[in-house]
Amino acid sequence: MSRPPRPTIPVISAYRVKRAAVRNRYTAQYACPFDECGLTLKSSEEEIGETEHCPYCGTVFRLDRQPLALQRKRDEDDKEAGRERRLQAKQERNQQKRASEEIRQNARRQRDEQKNADRERRARELEASKRETEHPKNKEEGSPHPVRKRVIQVGTVLLLILFYFSFGFFVVQPIGAIPDGVTIFYFRLGTNLPFVGSPDGLLIDKDLPVSLLGRGVVLAAISKRIAERRIVNLPYLKPLYLWSTGWREFDR
């Protein structure tokens, strides 16, 4: 008498594998293979591949270990790829660090070379100035030191600027009241008058016709201010008069 065939145990090969964050352990999540049950079940990594049964309907089944092995291999591959990416990123950072350090060293070397070149140039200039100062010809002529000469030039320019803005000349050409004419040197600061002025020049600046009446009006308006600031009266200087009128001459 033949034995009845042993019932086959269903094997579940489609299930979800999850890895726990602690201890790198895996769990399987799946549904009961009995269609009328369908209860969601979980199995630990040690239970995968072993015979189990549904606690609700009692159905016996077994989980295939292939999905677990595939998931473990994928995780290991991802871990290895992550390790390689981190190693590559570290190497790139080291290369960038070395490149930055090389750039800083080159910049430091260039600065040092420039400083040395400037120091040598100043030493040569100082030596040359000493030789020029100690030269017998320079001693006989008494030529000033280059720095002193520069100071004298700057001081002269500043004095000329101060003279231009502080003093002025007012020229009155020969007319009836002043037959010989006069040039007044005066303290000009705060008067709003030009450096070289004249009644005719002021009339021209204001686009007014030049006439005896206009000259008289101008003299009456500014004579008191100029008289209070007058330093000295000089003879009539025709070049200054022409300067004030734009090199134009008018009849008396």
Distance between the termini: 163 Å
Report strand order across the widest sheet: 9-7-8-10
Uncertain spans, ≥5 residues at pLDDT below 50? Answer: none
- Strand percent estimate: 15-25%
**How many strands, what sense, and barrel or not for the largest sheet?**
4 strands, mixed
Structural class: alpha+beta
Q: What's the SSE pattern?
A: EEEEEEHHHEEEHHEH
- pLDDT average, as an integer? 83
Q: What is the CA-atom radius of gyration, in angstroms?
A: 54 Å
Q: What portion of residues is helical?
A: 40-55%
Gross morphology is elongated
Tell me the total number of β-strands. 10
Separate helix tally: 6
Report on this structure:
- This protein has 252 residues and is an alpha+beta fold.
- Among the domains are: 11-64, no CATH class; 166-244, no CATH class.
- It has helices at 66-134, 136-141, 146-166, 199-205, 212-229, 238-244; strands at residues 11-12, 16-19, 26-31, 40-44, 51-53, 60-63, 167-172, 182-187, 196-197, 230-234.
- A 4-stranded mixed beta sheet has the order 9-7-8-10.
- The termini are far apart.
Topology readout:
Elements (H helix, E strand, L loop, with lengths): L10 E2 L3 E4 L6 E6 L8 E5 L6 E3 L6 E4 L2 H69 L1 H6 L4 H21 E6 L9 E6 L8 E2 L1 H7 L6 H18 E5 L3 H7 L8
Parallel strand pairs: 1-6, 7-9
Antiparallel strand pairs: 2-3, 3-4, 5-6, 7-8, 8-10
